[in-house]
Amino acid sequence: MIEFVLCIIVILSAILALIQKDLLKAAILTGFSGGALAVLFQILLAPDVALTQAIVGAAIVPVFIALAVKKTQRSDS
Amino acid sequence: MAQTQLAILLTSAALIIIGLYSAIFIDNIIKKIIGISFIEEGANLFIVAIGYKAGGVVPILMPGMDTSWFAANAAYPLPFGLVLTSIVIGASTLAVMLALVMVLYRRYGTLSTKVMLADTSKQEEYNE
Amino acid sequence: MNELIPLMVIVPLMAALLISAFSKLNKVTKIFAFVVAICLPLIPLLSNYGLHYFGGYEPMLDNVTGIMYHPAITYSFTFLQQIIICAVGLLTFLVIFIYLTKYKKVSGPYLFLLFLGTAAVTAMILTDDIFHMFVFFEILALAQVGIVAASSIDFSYEMALKYMILGSIGSPIMLLGIGFLLALTGSVNVTDIALAVHTGLIDATSPVFLLSLALIFFGWLYASGLPPFHTIKSGIYSKAEPHGAALLQSFTVVSMISIVIIMFRIYSSLPIFEVLVVFFSILAMILGVSLALTQTDFRRMIGFLAVGELGFIGLGIGLGTNFSITAGLFQALNEIIITALLFIGFGAVVHATNEVDTRKLGGILAYHPKVSIMLLIGGLAMAGVPPLSGFQSKLMLVQASLSCGFPEISILAIMVSIATFVVFVKTYYTMFLKPKPNDLDLEGKEVPKSMVFAMGVLLIIIILLGIFPDVVTSGISNFVGGIL
Asked: Of A38, B9, C71, C206, which one has the greatest count of Cβ atoms within 10 A?
């Protein structure tokens, strides 16, 4: 059952990230999507991929985007 | 559990379509880049789903396991190895793109693609 | 000496890492880069033909079905790989030589990118593993973006970002295509996949197989800059430094032929594959030449002509006979050398005049006769004037399309060659022969000797290949016989 919930979290947070006006919120929602994807990989019997995705998708990518937003501008206009 | 696999495939298709839509139609460059990272995640999810075996076990041979039982029940590990590489490539591509965006923001003062990546020949005429 | 096969990739890769780590030591970096660059064309000449299995995993025989499986990443090294790697290595050497003599203080990251790109294309042409090729395809895209962004030309960052965005849409799509192939066959080794397709283990008309063709084909179009990516490809040539552009176009040609050979081995049983390749090639030929005619920036003009020449390679491969594929691959080798000569020569003009607009130039022939004459011969070779190398390969292509029963295509190829000739001669006239405009100052500006040397070396190769084409074509023909 949990995999369906995770699928919905992944898609919803992806859509929400793209309709945010605040780019910092978009970065955090990208992290949500990446983290849910990592758990999904664990359910799909790939623990090594899940570890990598948890680090890259839930931590590194949102931090990169947040840094870029901090150096540029925060609102999407 | 064919349902699981179907749900995963639909999710990856949805991620790819969301990503393509945002990469083509959204004007803000950072959101475009976020969308591109979704395309990569969708492709990764699809490839992991290939290796999945319903009701199988993690493809790590522990001591004491029967080899033929393991061969019949373990998931297929080759796609997982490929996805590991692909995730890291995606992250590094994203970092390079964001670095270029940060340099260009200093010149234009906006994140709009229409201003930043307009046809370069027109930009040259404008400067003259 | 089969141990040298992986070294062709490892040497430039290690050199790239070491140079970027020790770029503070200027003199040491210069000498090291020069020594490694000399080694690059020599290693493939010294190595023997053969296969190399990474990790030593030999092919395994399945006793039940009697099929060989290749568990290791395999590098196969034959005559075609030897000649192409040698050409790219020589070009890398010349480009690095020009770069080292042009600047007193060298930039470590730029040399890193040049070596990284060379390593990536070498791995792409050697590998027999479709995912391995994808990884180096991504590395190559990053290196190309870096080379463009590192140039000091206006709007180079914009062009780099545009190319990167298109690339990061194109490469996941190609990965998806590889994923479909993996789902069908359970393998990423091209030999295994091709065997499974040709023995009928997988249905060649199934929609999944066709979809994988479409997705990988899209990635190929992006990598080779055929339409609809011709504008961005000629754009990145014009925004890179001239010697960088000379190397970038060789990367494009090599990645194009390495991907198309892999696609040919897998999909050659589908008739639609050959139709698609021929269609996009003809489109590239026509669009490249007609857009080149309207350009006023001569770097952009050469960029579009280079895209048009790529169409000839695709045409040869799309026709699908032994003779035509040989002609296409020979054309690829010629294009690597001829276009590099043109980019370096026009780079010398930019260096001497600081002007890229053909309308503001004129009368350069009297001031720089050596460069002008070498450029003229290079342009004639590209247009296919005998007895230069471009003539030999284009003649072979025309013969091949005639013997396949497509006289229309051969007429089109001849017309595109003539149009290339017209475009080149028109630009040449306005830049070199027309009276000098009054506001153009040409006095006392020297062309670097290293550029003249590089052009001379490339010119000798063009003339030799034009007089003795059999040296190369017989070997390539053997290779093509192996994959058909």
From this structure: A38
Q: Per-residue pLDDT tens for C318-372? A: 998 999 999 999 999 999 999 999 999 988 888 888 887 888 888 888 888 888 9
Q: What is the ipTM of this complex?
A: 0.92
Contact between C324 and C401 (Cβ < 8 Å): yes
pLDDT in tens, A1-29: 888 999 999 999 999 999 988 999 999 99
User: ∠ at Cα C225 (C296, C115), nearest 5°?
Assistant: 100
The pLDDT, as a whole number, for residue C139 is 93
CA C8 and chain centroid, separation:
17
Angstroms from B76 CA to nearest CA on chain C? 9
Q: Name residues of chain C where pLDDT drops below 70.
A: 1
Lookup: tokens for C391: 């003539």
Which of B16, B25, B45, B97 should be substituted to probe chain C, the one whose Cβ sees the most C Cβ atoms within 10 Å?
Answer: B97
**Cβ distance of A56 and B10 shorter than 8 Å:** no
Burial of C10 by CB count in 10 Å (0-12 exposed, 13-18 middle, 19+ buried)?
middle
C-alpha dist (Å) from residue C194 to C136, C204, C264, C308: 21, 11, 9, 30
**How far lies C370's CA from each of C163, C377, C455, in Å?**
35, 11, 10
pTM: 0.93
Q: Going by beta carbons, is chain C in contact with chain A, meaning 3 or more pairs sit under 8 Å apart?
A: no
Phi, psi angle pair for B46, to nearest 5°: -60, -45
- Rounded CA-CA distance B43/B56 in Å is 22
**Domain spans of chain C, in order of start:** 1-269, 270-484
| Residues paired with residue C68 on neighbouring β-strands, in sequence order | C61
Chain B, 46-75: which have a CB under 8 Å from a chain A CB?
Answer: 48-49, 51-53, 56-60, 75
